[in-house]
Design goal:
CATH superfamily of the largest domain: Reverse transcriptase/Diguanylate cyclase domain
Shape: globular
Number of strands: 12
Structural class: alpha/beta
Number of domains: 2
Distance between the termini: 34 Å
Largest sheet: 5 strands, parallel
Strand order of the largest sheet: 2-1-3-4-5
Helix content: 40-55%
């Protein structure tokens, strides 16, 4: 292909969400960041920024401090309080370089500050630095302390390359959004930590020190273990989870066996208690040439078992 021929390659710098109520500054940042090969989205207020971040969590957010309805401090507080967006790095843009502002910003979880008017090369350097630190942090989940996506990928790829017999158990929670909406983010985080602890306990009990447990993010987890014990691990997780999950609920909801949540129209809907769905990909009957192949099969099996009411697991028994 000639060097000057355009390509459809995706931006390589990372995903950035620009949040500024000044359309001129927002557009300027969008142009500069796209030129630097970042994947850029723009929100003109904090409420819209939260919606976009919850739909697809960016690697980094450039947030204006002074905005109507929700300032940069409050936006950052809400980002940090939500497990779906807690991992996003935040650089605050402000016309004020006051020490008090910086202290408050760092207290709520801001990663860095840029004072307007900003110098573009300095801004890009700060972005690169914050993204690098964020990548290092993603090697470990700040909520559960478990290995994050980078280490999960490395663990699976290492087993694929070595030709070892292994299995991937991809687990996530059913009805978690309703639980989070009903009880709030702090109780939602507690449910995720409960799940992380349970998975680690079962992995140590059934597999021993060779088991690997990782936190993909949100309510998604991965266990990597020997192929011969995978089904036993999955069965034990479901048994332990169903036996203990009711402890996360208030007495009235526990007695009813469900929670009632009002939707946006004010209509009350009833949701079952949390359940766990597990998809298993194993090398018992097939081999994998790349970690993504194994993850895709485990994800497919997890999606299949989510159609079952209550906690369940499914293992892929197809051959290559």
């Amino acid at each position: 292909m000639p060097d000057d021929e355009p390509t459809d390659a995706a931006p390589v710098g990372g995903a950035v969400l620009v949040v500024d109520d000044d359309p001129f500054i927002a557009r300027l940042l969008e142009i500069e960041l796209k030129a630097a090969e970042y994947d850029v989205r723009v929100a003109n207020d904090g409420v819209r920024a939260l919606e976009l971040a919850r739909e697809r969590c960016p690697d980094l957010m450039l947030v204006d401090l002074m905005m109507p309805s929700m300032d940069g401090f409050e936006l950052t507080r809400q980002l940090r309080a939500d497990s779906r967006t807690a991992s996003a790095s935040v650089i605050m843009l402000t016309a004020r370089g006051l020490s008090a502002d910086k202290l408050e910003g760092f207290a709520v979880g801001v990663d860095d500050y840029i004072v307007k008017p900003f110098d573009t090369p300095e801004l890009l350097a700060r972005i690169r630095s914050v993204l690098r630190r964020g990548k290092e942090m993603r090697q470990q989940s700040p909520l559960t302390g478990l290995p994050g996506n980078i280490r999960i990928e490395g663990e699976i790829e290492g087993r694929v390359r070595s030709g070892a017999r292994f299995a991937i158990l991809y687990a996530d929670l059913d009805n978690f959004k309703a639980f989070n909406d009903h009880y709030g983010f702090m109780r939602g985080d507690r449910a995720i930590q409960f799940t992380a602890d349970l998975l680690q306990d079962v992995a140590r009990e059934v597999v021993g020190p060779d088991a690997f447990v990782g936190h993909v993010g949100g309510d998604d987890f991965v266990i990597v273990c020997g192929a011969e014990v995978a089904e036993h691990v999955a069965e034990r997780i479901v048994e332990r989870f169903d036996g203990a999950v009711t402890d996360l609920y208030d007495e009235s909801d526990r007695a009813r066996g469900s929670i009632r949540v009002a939707n946006r129209r004010g209509e009350v809907q009833e949701f079952p208690l949390l359940a766990i769905s597990i998809g298993v990909a194993t090398t018992e009957r097939r081999s994998y040439g790349h970690f993504a192949e194994a993850v895709a099969i485990a994800t497919e099996m997890k999606s299949f078992t989510k159609g079952t009411l209550g906690s369940s697991w499914a293992v892929d028994r197809r051959t290559n």
